[in-house]
TrEMBL record:
This is Choline kinase. PANTHER family: N-ACETYLMURAMATE ALPHA-1-PHOSPHATE URIDYLYLTRANSFERASE, NUCLEOTIDYL TRANSFERASE. Residues 2-136 form the Nucleotidyl transferase domain. GO terms for molecular function: kinase activity; nucleotidyltransferase activity. The keyword Kinase applies. Keywords: Kinase, Nucleotidyltransferase, Transferase. It comes from the Bacteria. The lineage of its organism: Bacteria, Pseudomonadati, Pseudomonadota, Gammaproteobacteria, Nevskiales.
Length: 258
């Protein structure tokens, strides 16, 4: 299983923490955000990761050359348009990496290995969107409407009364689902607004066109999105517990050729 991690952005909402380093290299309990992602993916069964870089790409590449979980193949793809384009364009840039079954993980989402395993083992579908549920949702949540397991809509502006869950920014694509997704983003990138859109807008369009998009709920498992300064403190609390529980099991060595 291959995973693509979208880590091109600076994370300007976290300034001054990100004034000279990207969000993915912020320290959380002794490991950067990206290191936690790689270790969770590896423990969860992923064997290959493609990291999309942008802001301060050289710093990310240096970290990867020094700290890579044993047995995990990691490559980078540089996105030169990270300053002017949103993540739909990032997915378009790496569309050739999605030729087979794959996972896509937002660069600001921390997940524990159990979430990775659950997503990989979820019932077959063209596209699977990992979700969590809570009592109420705010304006920044990527909201999800669903009928049973079938996703019917996804977006930040959905009517709160109809929302069933929120996307945590972690998806699985079958080969057929990836092909439909690539076709959709290629069409959208030909429009005037293509570079300004989130890739989940393409998932919304596919779901409404009848493509088999399902949800996988990870209620009760630990994850965290790092967007704003309060998120940093919460993520450090979560990762401190992870460090004691499962991090020592993950041997790390310099990547080949480092």
């Amino acid at each position: 299983m291959k995973a693509i991690v979208l880590s091109a952005g600076q994370g300007s909402r976290l300034l001054p923490l990100t004034v000279s380093k990207p969000k993915c290299l912020i320290d959380f309990s002794g490991r950067s955000l990206l290191e936690w992602q790689l270790e969770a993916l590896h423990c969860g069964g992923v064997t290959e990761v493609v990291v999309v870089t942008g802001f301060a790409a050289d710093q990310v590449e240096t970290m990867l050359a020094l700290r890579t979980p044993v047995g995990l193949k990691v490559r980078t793809v540089f996105n030169p348009f990270y300053k002017v384009a949103d993540n739909l364009a990032t997915c378009w840039l790496v569309r050739q990496e999605m030729a087979g079954p794959c996972l896509v993980l937002n660069g600001d989402t921390l997940v524990e290995p159990s979430i990775v395993r659950q997503l990989i083992e979820a019932p077959a579908s063209a596209i699977t969107v990992t979700v969590d549920r809570k009592s109420q949702y705010d304006a920044d949540d990527m909201k999800v409407c669903a009928t049973g397991r079938r996703l019917t809509a996804i977006g930040k502006t959905l009517d709160a009364e109809s929302v069933d869950a929120e996307s945590i920014g972690f998806l699985r694509f079958s080969p057929e689902g990836a092909a439909r997704f690539i076709e959709q983003i290629e069409q959208v990138m030909r429009t005037a607004d293509g570079v300004k859109l989130w890739y989940l807008s393409a998932i919304n369009a596919l779901a409404q066109a009848g493509v088999d998009v399902q949800i996988e709920s990870i209620e009760g498992l630990q994850w965290g999105e790092v967007d704003f300064h309060p998120d940093v403190a919460r993520a450090r609390t979560i990762t401190a517990a992870w460090a004691a529980r499962w991090l020592p099991q993950v041997p790390v060595r310099p990547a080949a050729g480092a």
